[in-house]
Amino acid sequence: MRTLQETIKVHYSSLSPGQQKVAAFYIERPQEAALLTAFQIGKQVGVSETTVIRLAYALGFSGYSELQQALRKDWLLPKQDISEVLPSKDGQTNDNQLIRQVILREQAILQNLAEQIKVDDVWAMAETLIHSDRIYIGGFGSSYAAAYWLYYALKQMRGNVVISSPTGFMTEDICDLTTNSAAVIFSFPRYRQDTVQAATIAKEQGAKIIGITDRTLSPIGQLADMTFTSSENEVTDAHSIASIISLLDMLLAGMRIRDCEHIAKRQQQLEHLYAEQQLFSE
Amino acid sequence: MRTLQETIKVHYSSLSPGQQKVAAFYIERPQEAALLTAFQIGKQVGVSETTVIRLAYALGFSGYSELQQALRKDWLLPKQDISEVLPSKDGQTNDNQLIRQVILREQAILQNLAEQIKVDDVWAMAETLIHSDRIYIGGFGSSYAAAYWLYYALKQMRGNVVISSPTGFMTEDICDLTTNSAAVIFSFPRYRQDTVQAATIAKEQGAKIIGITDRTLSPIGQLADMTFTSSENEVTDAHSIASIISLLDMLLAGMRIRDCEHIAKRQQQLEHLYAEQQLFSE
DNA sequence: AACACATTGCATGTAAAACTTCAAAAGTCT
DNA sequence: AGACTTTTGAAGTTTTACATGCAATGTGTT
């Protein structure tokens, strides 16, 4: 028997009435139980602190502290299977497996994103972008790819979107921003200093700063009004932008839902112009 | 300010170095932090118990216990988003589901990629790129983001890499190609005609054409010497580039394995130049 | 170099939680 | 009903964790 819950089931029938009540609490509300003290749990189920402690002995633990530790481990464990996938620095694995592990890693990061993401924040950012009179997108070096993806998608939806060049920003782009504008700043390790400068200038113009970065406490994260992080609690030196793209796709989906009339209208206009240009084949 | 993470972000810049280390731990591993004692956290990040406790005061709490309680509350609350997932007639909730479906869709695409990918083809492409004297990367419109990502990563590894502008190609870039060169052409719906033109010119120069597209039989797929497809049997009008990025990451991983000496050497050179420029913060 | 100031960790004090003991209450058997 | 066993909680003890004063160290400034 491995988890605490399994241990409890085995011993349950041989427990005293009071201990059974406590045991039931552990099964039904494990998260709460992991945080409360023996006294508090006793109070919750209507027995004395002593009875709670005695349950630990009855289950074969050396004391209540040990039981609590076991419970907390069970709770943290599910989170750990992601990190098990990541540092697969096994020298024995052949090269083909290394290639495939790239996908496994991406999947793990996506899973983590799905668990961590706060949908409300996505909505808030979508609303901000919809109602901004002007949007500046800044992303240099390795961040430029993701920045351009956002730029292109926003351009499909609305006007007044500008993007920096991949090599650096032009002050002229940023100084057009107003208090009704938004600046989306991408910044990933190695954090470039000019990214921070661009954000600072945009902030001086009163624009809302939306930071897309890897950690809340990264240089941009500290400046930004809203921050989106790709994989906060992961330890991955080599950052992939795949999860960032997914994040942006969520944002874009949100904007399409909230602002569908305008977007549809613009789409029509674009279609018309495309047709004139004969830009596309098929 | 509501959550502990937000509180930390506000105060972060005014914290002492030691306190910042502790604060970062709270952001990066909140679950673990919620369970550990002040002493244990201090041990984890390498500071004394005292410093941990002082962080609580710096953040405006009446003591460490209060901070811990706040963190534990934040942790127990997210459990409520289960109701978010459950089907509901509430319009708002359905929208939230739509957002989350973006991730589910990405995961499905990745899964598909993992099943379909031929690792040998990845190796072949990696070898081709390593041994090319010159690499041209073409990707216009929506394809440019992925193209740039590849460009940037290749630039980190080797010289003689050029990329088209997002709006169109310059014939001069392509005509420098030789029979020992490679041209990586990105093309996704709506297929732009100039992409095909660029590929044709590159082929006339004798360069190997590597097509990154959505279907084997897309315009580029028919021209290319090797073709990579993101999601052949998926029917998704709004194509995401997340899987393309994953594909590129596999390719890049392959190149790093096969050509690690050269890459390491170039990396060192770059590091040296970066240091001179002071391009990066931290 | 000398000063002020901030930061940090050790040592000690205090509060709280875990553990132990013991006697009363409840249940069981003859 | 009386004796025995089991169960339980209040009170006391020990351990652990939080809190605080103080000295040592480091940093920047005049």
UniProtKB/TrEMBL annotation, chains A, B:
Coiled coil: none annotated. GO terms for biological process: carbohydrate derivative metabolic process. Keywords: DNA-binding, Transcription, Transcription regulation. Residues 125-261 form the SIS domain. Residues 2-78 form the HTH rpiR-type domain. InterPro entries: Homeodomain-like_sf, HTH_RpiR, RpiR-like, RpiR-like_SIS, SIS_dom, SIS_dom_sf, WH-like_DNA-bd_sf. This is RpiR family transcriptional regulator. It comes from Sporosarcina newyorkensis 2681.
